[in-house]
Amino acid sequence: LGKAMSASFSSHIDELRQYYNTGATRSIAWRSQQLQRIIQLIEENRETMTSALYQDLHYDPFLQEMSEVGFPLKEAEYHLANLPKWTQPQYIDLDLMLKPAHGYVLPEPLGVVLIISPWNYPLSLIFKPLIGAISAGNCVIIKPSEISANTSKWITKYLPTYLDSSAIRVLEGGPEETTALLREKFDHIFYTGSTAVGKIVMRAAAEHLTPVTLELGGKSPCIIDKDVDLDVTVRRIVIGKFGNCGQTCVAPDYILVLKDLEKDLIEALKKTISEFYGENPQTSPDYGRIISVKHTDRLSGLLQGETLIFGGSIDREERYISPTIIKSSLQSQSKIMQEEIFGPILPIITISNLNEAIKYINDRPKPLALYVFSANQDVQQAVISSTSSGSVCVNDAVIQVTDKNLPFGGVGPSGIGRYNGKSSFDTFSNPKSVMSRGTWVDPSLRYPPFTERKLWWLKTLSNFRLPPKMDFF
To answer: DSSP of 63-98, one letter per residue?
Structure first.
């Protein structure tokens, strides 16, 4: 079975590589057509698309429209509008020593790429990298997450009816199939998911020296300073943390708050959660579900032994965990403070001052995102300049990943590489350097025999720069 599976995957990849070598995907017309077809696919199949999302994650209508429908549509439209400009050579100024010549950087497609998508935003996190791969001119194999089974079936059914199946294919399967796929040679692998699996992907890619983009996760901290509008702060944290039931890679993982503000913060969190989701969030149409019973059990296990402040209700069969707040500390060595929570559980940790918060963050792996709520610009800049993370958002949560002009990605254990907008095009492109030199002059300076006079001229010309307006060679 394993050999048959590998042979099948090899066949798909060989066919895509043969098609890529025809040059068909390099044309702007082909790229534009595929991007337009993605827009058409989403717009013509919203009902079945949102139904699949609801079955998997109990997505609320707003999250469906904003994340899984709106983001891919805007991304495709943005790439369509900018594709002619992005694909043009970027001319650069060459040193005088190299004249007469001109140089430029030409973005070229990588070839056949693999996109392995996650289950938490199972369509937008297929479409966004796919749009970048297509706009850069690549052939693509998509491996959707088997955990979000309904959306996996949806993408497998509908995508091939809209996009060019000679260049873009969907291959379903679980860990065994993914492992077999990773044995194949690709020109780039784009993976979104856990750090543990990211290490497996990187090891497999190393066998072929395949470049990777790893969009991982980690424990994204949230600092709350005393100088804040608490009502606005709490509203933004609650929707950022408990939207999609906490199953967002950049959701605030825990809060670091000054001791004097702790009581008011907790009361405001309780009040806002009730305002958003009612007294019983299980009946709210706006509150999601955990992706599976297995993940529900994992989160339930993390709560064992913790100090519960609010929530904590669990319905295992319905995959429901209520918005939950727990009390933790800077000294805690509990499991919930050692791994990414990825669920609707929010630990509160009190701090004495800002430096204590910064030290706590810097003593741990670099997070995918970091949040600081403060009206004090000195506090904002201290956090930004004294910590390292994939992104920082000041006075809001999660929203920073939505702008197409802000590259999204991690640093160190939270990820490698960037995408969003132009960054997606760049991720799936090779910036090929090109130099073209004239032959009408060929000074002997660079050729033997090397004399003292030639060395003098070499040093003189190496240090000489023409003013920009005189650079006419």
So the answer is: HIIIIIIIHHHHHHHHHHHHHHHHTS-EEEPPPGGG
Using a 10 angstrom Cβ sphere, with 0-12 exposed, 13-18 middle and 19 or more buried, the burial of residue 74 is middle
Position of tokens 């890679």? 249
pLDDT for the residue numbered 8 = 85
- What the block records as the tokens of 443 is 């000074």
Of the candidates 101, 138, 190, the residue with the CA atom closest to the CA atom of residue 433: 101
Run of H or E including 457? helix 452-462
pLDDT level of residue 472 (50, 70, 90 thresholds): very low
Q: 470: exposed, middle or buried (C-beta count within 10 Å: 0-12, 13-18, 19+)?
A: exposed
CA angle 208, 14, 207 (to 5 degrees): 10
Whether residue 6 has pLDDT greater than 70: no
pLDDT in tens, 54-68: 999 998 778 888 889
Separation between Cα atoms, residue 433 and residue 321, nearest integer Å: 53
Q: Provide mean pLDDT across the span 293-299.
A: 97
Which positions are annotated as active-site residues? Answer: 215, 249
Cβ-defined contacts of 328-332 (< 8 Å, 24+)? 328/254, 330/356, 330/360
Cα–Cα distance for residue pair 300/313, rounded to 1 Å = 10
Task: Give Dmax (Cα) for the chain.
Answer: 88
pLDDT above 90 covers a percentage of the chain that reads 88
Decide the pairing of beta strands 221-224 and 307-310: unpaired
For residues 387 and 203, what is the distance between their CA atoms, to the nearest angstrom? 28
pLDDT digits (tens, 9 = 90+) for 335-382: 999 999 999 999 999 999 999 999 999 999 999 999 999 999 999 999
Single pTM value for the model:
0.94
Question: Which residue, 195, 117, 120, 191, is CA-closest to 412?
Answer: 195
Residue recorded with tokens 């100024």? 93
Token pair listed for 305: 């032994």
Residue 63 CB contacts under 8 Å (≥ 6 apart), including other chains: 243, 244, 288
Characterize the bridge pairing of strands 307-310 and 415-416. Answer: unpaired
Structure tokens at 10: 């090899």
With beta carbons less than 8 A apart as the criterion, state whether 392 and 367 touch. no
